Amino acid sequence: MTARAVSTVGRQDLHLRMRRAVGRTLSYLLLLLVTAIVVAPVAWIFLVSLRTQSEYTSYPITFLPTAAHWENYFRAVFEYDFVAKAWNTLQIAVPSTILTVLSSALAGFGFARHRAPLRNVLFVLVLSMLMVPRMVTIIPTFMLFAKLHLTNTYWPWILWGLTGSSYHIFLFRQFFAAIPKDLEDAAEVDGCGRFRIFWQIFMPNSTPVIAAAAIFHFQWVWGDWVNPQIFLTAAKTTLSVYLQSAYQDPKGFPLDTIQLAAVAVYILPMLIVFFFAQRYIIQGIVTTGLKG
After folding, report:
1. Of 12-26, 128-142, 191-205, minimum mean pLDDT range
2. How many CB atoms sit inside 10 A of residue 273's CB?
């Protein structure tokens, strides 16, 4: 190879490495920008929650508080009904999550492993419910529960849990369809029935999708504002509704910094759960796209 050819190859290699370096740099800058946009509101909530009310309403606006007032968190949790409303929310979220995951898993198992007439038609019908906005059905749903005298109770969430979730049924169906049929055939040879196969073979091998479905549903119930506002009174309402207007002084003026301290405590459990379970969430979503 001549010196000229070697020089040409060297320049091409240098050019390729420069393009890769520029591409990586732009990718990192884009990721930093997206991360800043996502994290900025949460960071602002935390910073404002450490201020006094007078400092919050002062002008010009400062980014950092002059002093950290951690007592705002104590007041937000213990001087108001934060703990009681959080307990109300847990009474709804935990049973609803457990029932939704189990019922969705059963439905997904049926769609994935049973050959039945109109199975695909029924599955398409279930998926079509994802296209229907919840606000479209909220009025007839309220009228139905009102006639059954189930308003101002937690029974609507229990009944919703028993019917499963269209999105979670889709996740379980796709995941169960990817499990090798040899496991199912071996269990049938050993004399296992359909429910035993589901419970002892499919469910233990479905940890990622179970975790993803449970976290998604728990997060939805924990952050739901519309349904508690409509179906529950102030005594039984959830934390998301309570945070809207509970933090006021005796004259009715809002205590914004204490309210934001309560909001910070309110979102903290979801951040912790997502941080420790993100691997299961990603794995559960990715593996549902595999075919067996």
Report:
1. 12-26
2. 17
Calculate the alpha carbon distances from 260 to 42, 44, 54, 58, 226 in Å.
Answer: 10, 10, 14, 17, 20
For residue 127, how many other CB atoms are within 10 A of its CB? Answer: 14
- The distance from CA 16 to its chain's CA centroid, rounded to whole angstroms, is 41
Q: What is the pTM of this model?
A: 0.82
Other C-beta atoms lying within 10 Å of the C-beta of residue 138: 14
Three-point CA angle 23, 24, 30, nearest 5° = 90
Residue 217: Cβ-neighbour burial (10 angstroms; 0-12, 13-18, 19+): buried
- Rounded CA gap, 131 and 166, in Å? 10
99 pLDDT higher than 80 = yes
d(CA 41, CA 156): 33
Q: How far is CA 218 from CA 142, 173, 269, 275, in A?
A: 22, 20, 11, 15
Is the pLDDT score of 288 beyond 60?
no
The reported pLDDT for the residue numbered 291 is 44
Segment among 116-120, 132-136, 283-287 with least mean pLDDT: 283-287
C-alpha distances (whole Å) from 55 to each of 150, 245, 263, 266 are: 46, 21, 19, 23
Would you state the structure tokens that stand for residue 146, as one six-digit string?
A: 């009102």
81-287: CATH topology: MetI-like fold (1.10.3720)
* Three-class secondary structure of residue 76 per DSSP: helix
Arithmetic mean of pLDDT, 173-198: 83
239 band by pLDDT with thresholds 50, 70 and 90: very high
Contacts of 156 (CB under 8 A, 6+ apart): 141, 145, 150, 227, 231
